[in-house]
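Open question from group meeting: does this chain pack into something compact, or does most of it stay loose? Before anyone orders reagents, we agreed to write out a predicted structure and look at it together. Recording both the input and the output here so the notebook holds the full record.
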Amino acid sequence: QVQLVESGGGLVQAGGSLRLSCAASGRTIGLFKMGWFRQAPGKEREFVAVTDWSGGSTAYSDSVKGRFTISRDNAQSTLYLQMNSLKPEDTAVYYCAAGSQWYYSGNYDPLQYRYWGQGTQVTVSS
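Structure tokens returned:
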């Protein structure tokens, strides 16, 4: 089993920055991809960013590209999401997720991810 625990959420003004962390524990070998999703009230969970095991392959949603950066520290079994130039529409619960297979056709589908964290709230005020 794998446990994922997010931290770093909070309240920030528009234009500000936050860094989310996701600590992984348990059987982390084989977690070939790790990603971030978010869910705003009344909306479906949406893909934000993903990285492969090495960090050499990453992908972002169009809505965050150029503002958010995903990275991972395998020595610390930790995933990060640096969020800059935050907007009110970034307000959501952010979830860390992990899966065992990288799809060259895309890694946007939540169903591809077996393990999920409990989420951390990010609120951006205007």
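Observations to bring back to the group:
The mean pLDDT is 94.
The chain has no helices and eleven strands.
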